[in-house]
Amino acid sequence: MPFTLNGNDVCQPTHPTPLPHPYWVAFSPSVAKLIDVELGVNGLPKDPEWLDVLAGNQLNVGELLFTSPISTAYSGHQFGSWAGQLGDGRAILLGDVNNLELQLKGAGRTHYSRMGDGRAVLRSSIREFLCSEAMHALGIPTSRALSVIGSKQAVRRETIETAAICSRIAPSFIRIGHFEHFASLQNITRLKELADLLITNFYPQSSAEKDSYLNLFKEIGERNAKLVAQWQSVGFCHGVLNSDNISALGLTIDYGPFGFLDSFEIDHICNHSDHGGRYAYHRQPQIMHWNMACLASAMLPLIQLEYSSEESQMLLRSTLEEFPTAYAKEWQKIFRSKLGLQSEEDGDIALIERLLQAMHDSRVDFTNFFRSLSSVKKDSQLIEIEQRNQFIDRKNIDQWFGDYINRLQSEYLNDESRKELMNQINPKYILRNHLAQDAIEKAQRDDFSEVERLHRMLSRPFDEQAAFDDYSKPPPVDIERVAVSCSS
Ligand code: AMP
Ligand code: MG
Question: What is the pTM of this model?
Answer without folding.
Answer: 0.97
